[in-house]
Automatic annotation (TrEMBL):
Annotated Acidic residues bias: 271-292
Stretches the record annotates as Disordered: 77-97, 270-299, 530-554
Residue intervals of the HAT C-terminal dimerisation domain: 579-650
Stated name of the protein: HAT C-terminal dimerisation domain-containing protein
BP terms from Gene Ontology: regulation of transcription by RNA polymerase II
Biological source species: Albula goreensis
GO MF annotations, alphabetized: protein dimerization activity
Cross-referenced PANTHER family: DNA REPLICATION-RELATED ELEMENT FACTOR, ISOFORM A (PTHR46169), INNER CENTROMERE PROTEIN A-LIKE ISOFORM X1-RELATED (PTHR46169:SF15)
GO cellular component, one term: nucleus
UniProt xrefs under Pfam families: Dimer_Tnp_hAT
Domain of life: Eukaryota
InterPro entries documented for this protein: HATC_C_dom, RNaseH-like_sf, Vacuolar_transposase_reg
């Protein structure tokens, strides 16, 4: 029986000679070629079949695969028939020896399971589910599933401790850093909310790094004093007290619904009520951030003012968030636009539900999911969880529909969904008006760190675009966007920090300025404030003790002593820097090269480029958690959610 079930490459050869040490000579049954090899090393036989007789080789491989699957399946079924106490770590069912706890393969699989739990924010209880355990035994019968208690109380905390050590070590060498505070309230299902403290710093070799320092649950109302207290404790624990350059924080805690869609553009696979909640939530946040309006929660103004009092001039608003709210306010569109977008959404939903994906690929690119999911992969700026609900993602869909409207109308049999000429004109104007805003949003979304040096040029570019654009159907949108831009982002144009960050970006410098001399003075004051030389007047030399002159060998005493190079003043450094033409180069790469030439400017650059214009990883995770915690989603809430969020945000510290 055993010999009949055995699959061997020698079945395709006739052995004609067998010598010492297992040496054999065989003739191929198909062509008669003689092959020499050993019984224990049969690669020559395999290679011959693969090169000369592909069909025989494929048959051999198929037999091997069938044999392997039958072996694994038989072992699993045999193990399922045994009682639980009969299992042993030393000898399992089918005489398969189980891995020891410290076996490399056992450790590797346990780590892979922990990675899955972290990345997918799964409840640790999944390791005790019957189906999950059956899958593990099918894939690796020798693996012993770890109990939930071990993963929850030892494995995950151990990973968190490793991240803390790595973070503290990295921050010790950082000269300065900026911190982002993300407040999220998950409603009754979450039992309160969470505070995420993310640190951004530049390493000695000018690499930007971001790390979530803590994710803390906030029960009840999270006041500004509570946030400040937690922030100070975290700062001391990680050794960054006194190093924080700026604190980026929104005045109100977000409830995970800051994403909004184009008005009326509702896709299949999304909950309309959920979208309505998102819209109302955004109005509340907008009202709390500087408008009077009903719907703002109790204590909104006091929280806003308290944050300013707590952090003072160190606190700034997140540019990505402010830009998002500008678009949100500007898109309070008149009925004709909403009706056109609603019809466009119906047309889009019908097309993606009924047209073959290969045809849709000609319009929307690869990866279109049919069946009403409305998912277009490969070009969406946001992650899969929220991409189809972001207005800039939807604007791309509208643009591609308009570009291929004749093709789509030819393959769709619903004339009632066809867009009229007026509706097409309205949508084309909307795309034209929002295109620069879409470009700006794409810049400040995603995983890459984007500094605030982009903020000021974006505001100037958007203001210029709105002043030069003329519309017939979208005049209300144009006016609304201009008003929202002035209300929320006009102060950036005169803010010393944004002026400094933009001027120290080599691709901009002061090429954008309409008053170069005034901005030069702003830059000088800001640089002097953040450098050691700025502590004293430029005309008065610093009184720091000079190092003793180096002792020269008597052998070289005849050589003239080279005069010590005179340090440049801030004005000289700035004049030399601005004299160079702007160049399209990453700011950190540039200042890594120029740190020796411009020591004082580079010192300031290493501070200002830590301030992010983008949303942080933990904020994007909060959006994902918000969907998990919605009452209509019957998914168990992980008990150690803050630990999972902490590890997910710092995933690259452990696994790259």
């Amino acid at each position: 029986m055993a010999s009949n079930s055995r699959v061997s490459i020698l079945d395709y050869f006739n052995i004609v000679f067998e010598g010492e040490n297992g040496k054999i000579e065989s003739n191929c049954k198909a062509c008669g070629t003689r092959i020499q090899a050993k019984r224990t090393v049969t690669s020559n036989f395999v290679t011959h079949l693969k090169r000369k007789h592909q069909a025989m080789y494929d048959e051999f491989v198929k037999k091997k695969d069938v044999k392997r699957e039958a072996y694994s399946s038989g072992a699993v079924h045999h193990m399922a028939g045994r009682s639980e106490p009969a299992r042993s770590s030393h000898g399992g069912a089918g005489n398969i020896a189980k891995f020891e706890r410290n076996d490399p393969r056992q450790v590797l699989i346990s780590e892979a399971i922990a990675k899955m739990i972290i990345r997918d924010l799964q409840a640790v209880q999944i390791v005790e589910n019957e189906g999950f355990r059956e899958l593990l035994q099918l894939l690796e019968p020798r693996y012993t599933p770890e109990p939930r208690r071990y993963i929850q109380q030892q494995l995950l905390p151990g990973y968190a401790y490793q991240v803390q050590l790595a973070t503290k070590q990295a921050l010790t060498a950082a000269e300065s850093c900026s911190v982002t505070l993300d407040l999220w309230r998950g409603g009754a299902a979450a039992g309160g909310g969470y505070l995420g403290v993310t640190c951004h710093f530049i390493t000695a070799d000018w690499q930007i790094r971001s790390a979530l320092l803590a994710c803390l649950p906030l029960a009840g109302q999270g006041t500004a004093q509570r946030v400040l207290s937690e922030f100070e404790e975290i700062s001391h624990a990680h050794g960054i007290a006194g190093k924080v350059f700026r604190v980026v924080a929104d005045p109100l805690p977000s409830d995970g619904r800051s994403i909004f869609r184009l008005p009326g553009f509702c896709l299949h696979g999304s909950d309309e009520e959920e979208d309505d909640e998102e819209d109302s939530s955004d109005e509340e946040v907008g009202a709390g951030e500087g408008e009077e309006g009903a719907g703002a929660g109790p204590g909104t103004d006091s929280v806003d003012n308290s944050l300013d009092l707590c952090f003072g001039p160190c606190r700034i608003d997140c540019f990505a968030r402010s830009l998002s709210m500008c678009v949100r306010e500007g898109l309070r569109a008149p009925p004709p636009l909403s009706l056109a977008l609603t019809k466009a959404a119906c047309f889009y939903n019908y097309v993606t539900a009924t047209v073959a994906p290969e045809k849709l690929g000609q319009v929307f690119g690869t990866g279109v999911a049919s069946g009403g999911g409305g998912t277009l992969s490969g070009w969406a700026p946001a992650g899969p969880a929220h991409g189809e609900q972001r207005w800039n993602w939807q604007l791309k869909a509208v643009r591609r529909m308009l570009e291929s409207t004749e093709f789509l109308e030819d393959i769709v049999d619903r004339q009632d969904l066809t867009l009229s000429s007026l509706e097409k004109a309205v949508l084309r104007e909307l795309v034209e008006v929002l295109e620069p805003f879409e470009e700006a949003m794409d810049m400040v979304q995603g995983d890459k760190h984007v500094s605030i040096s982009l903020a000021l040029p974006c505001v100037l570019g958007l203001r210029k675009h709105l002043s030069e654009t003329a519309t017939r159907q979208c005049t209300g949108v144009l006016v609304g966007l201009a008003q929202a831009l002035d209300r929320r982002l006009a102060t950036i144009l005169e803010d010393p920090l944004h002026v400094t960050a933009t001027a120290l970006d080599p691709q901009f410098k002061l090429s954008w300025s309409s008053d170069t001399e005034w901005h030069r003075q702003v830059l000088l004051k800001e640089v002097a404030k953040h450098t050691q030389a700025g502590a004293s007047s430029p005309q008065v030399p610093t009184q720091e003790p000079q190092p003793p002159p180096s002792k020269r060998s008597k052998l070289f005493s005849f050589m003239k002593q080279r005069p010590a190079s005179q340090a440049k003043s801030i004005e000289q450094e700035l004049a030399t820097y601005l004299h160079e033409e702007p160049r399209d180069e990453d700011p950190l790469h540039y200042w890594k090269r120029k740190a020796t030439d411009f020591p004082q400017l580079s010192q300031v650059a290493k501070k200002v480029f830590t301030v992010p214009a983008t949303t942080t990883p933990v904020e994007r995770i909060f959006h994902t958690v918000g969907r998990i915690l919605r009452p209509e989603r019957c998914r168990p809430l992980p008990k150690n959610l803050e630990t999972l969020i902490y590890l997910k945000a710092n995933y690259r510290f452990l696994w790259t």
